[in-house]
Amino acid sequence: MFNAVFEKLFKLQANGTNIKTEFIAGLTTFAAMSYVLVVNPSILSAGGMPVAGLITVTALAACLGTLLMAFMTNYPIAMAPGMGLNAFFAFTICLTRDIHWEAALGIVFWNGILFLLLSVTGVRTKIADAIPAALKIGVQCGIGLFIAFIGLKNAGIVVDHPATFLTIGDLSEPATMLAVAGILLTIVLFIKKVTGAILISVLVLTLIGAFIPTADGYLTQHTDSFVGMPDSISSTFFAMDLMYPIDNIATTWDLIFALMFVNMFDTIGTLIGVSRRANLLDKEGRLPKIGPAMTADATASVVGAALGTSPVTSYVESAAGVSSGGRTGLTGVFVALCFMLALFFTPLMKVIPLMATTPALIMVGILMMDSFRQLDFDDLTALATATVALLVMPLTFSISEGIAMGFITYVGIMVGTGKYKQVTWITYAMAAVFILRYVLDLK
């Protein structure tokens, strides 16, 4: 019975796969990306969101987003609240701009609606094609550096200093020492191509922390049970302030755009990269169902905002499942099921200490920096644009400022060198509004 149903829904034979292979692929993808259940709540709570229920929200958003992708496209691509997007939500919108988390969720919601409209009309792809490649690379690498910096800060490896702004932390502290060891362990596991490397590191550090005493008990607080019922999401469910972004559009438009910008290129890059591994691209190297895939991505962000999380996006860790043979949306169905089952291990996830999430943040940052090698280092315009965007993000602790300075730098160089005709009108328009924002101090 199940064979017939799955065959009808996902066309397993036509894609050269079967239920067993898709099941293994689903488990593999989940193992590779399950760290989001711990890391996303820790980042969002840093922005002021109530900790209670964030694990449940993260799992539900991942489950629903992945199911949308599975049934709308039949692709083996999983979704969850995006790394980088959650950092933007917490540190740029909530902390840097001093916007309350309910209003920030409203910004995420309208970003999702705009994203959905652009996806349905096909405008989204045209915008993506109009943005210079160097800026896309700089933004992705800058977010990677930003995330890694957050990890170093959380672990106490990097601390503030009145004279030099930043300095090395006290590496003799048990938590800091353990975080450094965890970073090295994660990198080694990745080099050895161990599936679920980040999850393994998080669990190992959590276990070791249970035996290291502190003034408050232990690094990892002890618990009576690792299994229990999921937390309620009542504190975040439909808590978004939808009117704040509209009433304050002069100071929130750039945040909505920045979210859309980051989500757009994150999604397109992941879809193309994972689909190439799964041989889903056509002869011209295009993804046949990129429209429905982007629509699923945008819809997931709207659903995520309603649940109470930052934008939901496609996960590059889906490539792990593809490498295990995943070829259809059935892989995503099994990933979604794993996220639902993981909810019953909420008590275990609650005791994972902050320092145990550091290796995850550092490793994600390293992987995002990988795209820098795609840059043409002989093209100084491209190099300067990408470098400015990359540096401004962590140094200003703001992803949107990095995007803004990247646009301004690129247009300024192209106009100054007489290559102004090569710049698209969309790029000119974005640079102009960012300059206007700085002149009028609209932040």
Automatic annotation (TrEMBL):
It comes from the Bacteria. The gene is pbuO. Its main location: membrane. It is a multi-pass membrane protein. It is found in: Cell membrane. Keywords: Cell membrane, Membrane, Transmembrane, Transmembrane helix, Transport. Signal peptide: none annotated. GO terms for molecular function: purine nucleobase transmembrane transporter activity. This is Guanine/hypoxanthine permease pbuO. Belongs to the nucleobase:cation symporter-2 (NCS2) (TC 2.A.40) family. Azg-like subfamily. One of its GO terms (cellular component) is plasma membrane. The chain crosses the membrane at residues 21-43, 49-68, 75-93, 99-121, 133-152, 172-191, 198-219, 255-274, 328-345, 351-369, 381-411, 423-440.
